[in-house]
Amino acid sequence: MDHQILAGKYKSVLKKVRAVNEPMSQDSNPPLSRDPYETPLSPNPPIFQETFKVTNERLQAVHFCPQGWLSNEKINLLNNVITLREKEISFCEEEEDYSEIHMENLTRYQ
């Protein structure tokens, strides 16, 4: 019987990196396109109308909650938020935008 040694590649301690729990700089937060306090969400959101990206089929796939758990007004509010923020939401991998990838703050293991 042929014996094999199964060992992982050795990584020296100097090359190891570990994530550090520290606050992120405020420069990494994207600026808001509007002031949320000046333009709050409407207490009476409009009834959902399909857009090019947000359709009834896609909203059915989101599954907000069990059937009948939220009132129709609350579901309309969620639909309104999704419609307002449709540029930031991806429903499939083809729609994902990796242009702005935020890297974790890493420090060398000591």
TrEMBL record:
Region named Disordered: 20-45
Name this protein carries in UniProt: Uncharacterized protein
Species of origin: Austropuccinia psidii MF-1
